[in-house]
Specification:
This protein is an alpha/beta fold. The chain folds into three domains: about 40-55 and about 230-370, HAD superfamily/HAD-like (Rossmann fold, 3-Layer(aba) Sandwich); about 55-220, no CATH class; about 385-480. The protein has 17 helices and 21 strands. It has a ten-stranded mixed β-sheet, sandwiched between helices. It has a five-stranded antiparallel β-sheet with strand order 8-7-6-5-9. The chain has a two-stranded antiparallel ribbon with strand order 2-21.
């Protein structure tokens, strides 16, 4: 079937209407794991932090890091010298796991295996990783393991690594390691390290949680919004485009009204002449949503006084529907669907938190999901820049698979030859036949040995190219979505739970509000093998 052809519009016309060909690239696309037909979506909801509101990463993460260090000194008895430890944003990526027993920071693949690990700022060798984790079953729900799946977690992981190094150096120098000194009778299955790495992580997490919880972080941000937020000029237009197509929009954020109003006003007030206030973009505004509890518990909706600079709640809401001129707090999914007159797959929710926004909404509802992965733009552009290396790796990988298969076939033949020599019936044929079998066996052993050496050489080439490729993404951890040839734990979560994913909300402007996002055809290993075999057969028939 011949594909339909579209006539290109003149470049000057495209530029005039703001649709010039340079305005769209692969890094700004919306990607699909599960078919999503926007024409069937009635409500589109958004998280705020790192979804509608894009933080300026460098100052934001530095601020979290510095305030957490101050909390550790003031509230947890840590030495003032830790203020000299520098934040390194290049060290951390999302999706890491901390083993609190050892102090190791882990990157895991889709099967739960540890792909690489760091202790402090030192990368563990392959042998160290194998010794500790090769036979270990890591259960991510256990209290010994802590996940770092959000961008808010990045300063936490860097500070933890810095403090591991700091206190172990003090230990080597004979200096005090308080408050992390292990008691002489420390339980070995809880403390496998030289210092109390379990307490260290809990202290760091409590420190960073406390600056979010008590408002000290947000008060600094609100005093200088221009420093801590990136204004996306296309955000307002993207929201307007959805509204113009008849979609109702809602905001569901864990941030409370005071902060939400300040941030959203900075980002959206007056950006389009049709919308004097940011609240006019949304049919429903819910602050203090307490996700993931919003999806799993039955907290009531409260009404909030929608006054700038105020944080007053007005009591529980008893209503059959939401009203545009009211602001809500808390609530639950059951009451939301009832009051919004929409449910399940009629609702699309867009958020950045793989667990709180995406996993829980998928597990506890039929809502459709879009995950905002800010790092996606950099990952895609790095993939484009490294296309030659990726092509070489693909070619080497295909050679390895082919050679593995061929060695397996030849080993099976060798076993048949060796079995034939032990077969008494072969004696009837005569010595000549036996000699022929022996000679064939010797030749085949040599050829298998040569093939195995070739395979080892290919493994070395693949390892070298993989190392080069990983360093071009992140020098410490490699690619965000991959762990060598496997999906990383984070990549697997994105694939499993996010119906769609993209780098920012405004990428939806490239698509019609009734666009059908189609997922690629899924292949299992045997499907891919049969496809390759079919192509080879077709190629041979064309040659013939």
């Amino acid at each position: 079937m011949t594909a339909p052809a579209f006539s290109p519009l003149p470049a000057d016309l495209l530029k005039l209407i703001g649709a010039d060909e340079n305005s769209f690239d692969a890094a700004r696309a919306v990607y699909t794991n599960r078919d999503l037909d926007l024409s069937g979506i009635k409500l589109v909801g958004f998280d705020m932090d790192y979804t509608l509101a894009i933080y300026n990463k460098a100052p934001m993460e530095q601020l979290q890091y510095d305030l957490t260090v101050d909390r550790l000194i003031e509230n947890a008895g840590y030495p003032k010298e830790i203020k000299n430890l520098r934040y390194d944003p290049a060290f951390v990526i999302r999706g890491l796991v901390v083993d609190k027993r050892t102090g190791h920071i882990l990157k895991m693949d889709t099967h739960g295996r540890v792909a690489r690990a760091f202790h402090g700022l030192r990368r563990l060798t392959a042998d160290e990783v194998k010794t500790r984790y090769f036979h270990a079953k890591l259960r991510l729900g256990s209290e010994a393991l802590a996940s770092a799946d959000t961008l808010f977690s990045m300063p936490e992981i860097c500070l933890y690594a810095n403090l591991i190094d700091f206190f172990e150096h003090r230990l080597d120098a004979g200096l005090s390691t308080d408050p992390l000194t292990l008691p002489s009778d420390a339980v070995t299955d809880r403390h496998a390290g030289r210092i109390n790495t379990w307490k260290l992580f809990d202290d760091v997490r409590e420190g960073i949680d406390s600056i979010h919880r008590d408002g000290s972080l947000k008060s600094v941000i609100m005093a200088d919004l221009g420093k801590y937020f990136v204004v996306d000029d296309n955000l307002a237009l993207s929201l307007h485009k959805l509204r113009s197509a008849g979609k109702r929009l809602f905001l569901l954020t864990n941030s409370f009204w005071l902060y939400t109003d300040a941030v959203m006003a900075f980002l959206l007030d007056g950006r389009l002449k049709e919308y004097a206030s940011w609240r006019q973009f949304f049919d429903v505004v819910i602050c203090g949503g307490k996700k993931p509890a919003f999806f799993t518990e039955r907290r009531p909706f409260l009404e909030v006084a929608a006054v700038r600079g105020s944080e007053q709640t007005l009591g529980e809401v008893e209503a059959d529907r939401f009203e545009r001129n009211r602001v809500y707090q808390g609530g639950n999914i059951a009451d939301f669907e009832r009051m919004a007159n929409a449910k399940g797959e009629e609702i699309l929710y867009v958020g950045d938190h793989i667990f709180g926004d995406i996993v829980r909404s998928r597990k506890d509802s039929r809502w459709r999901t879009c995950l905002v992965v800010e790092e996606l733009e950099g990952e895609i552009r790095a993939s484009i820049d490294n296309a030659p290396t990726i092509a070489v790796l693909d070619d080497v990988d295909a050679q390895r698979h082919g050679l593995d298969d061929e060695i397996a076939v030849q080993r099976a033949l060798l076993e048949r030859l060796e079995g034939a020599l032990d077969d008494k019936d072969l004696c009837i044929v005569g010595e000549a036949a036996q000699q022929e079998v022996e000679d064939a066996g010797k030749r085949l052993r040599k050829e298998i040995d040569v093939a195995k050496r070739s395979l080892r050489a290919l493994d070395k080439v693949a390892h070298e190219h993989q190392d080069t490729l990983d360093k071009s993404f992140n020098a410490s951890w490699g690619r965000l979505f991959k762990a060598s040839n496997e999906l990383s734990r984070f990549g697997a979560q994105v694939e499993l739970y996010a119906c769609t994913y993209t780098s920012r909300v405004s990428n939806f402007r490239y698509y019609s509000p009734v666009h059908f996002f189609r997922a690629p055809r899924e292949l299992m290993s045997h499907d891919a093998a049969l496809t390759t075999q079919s192509r080879k057969k077709a190629a041979r028939s064309r040659i013939a």
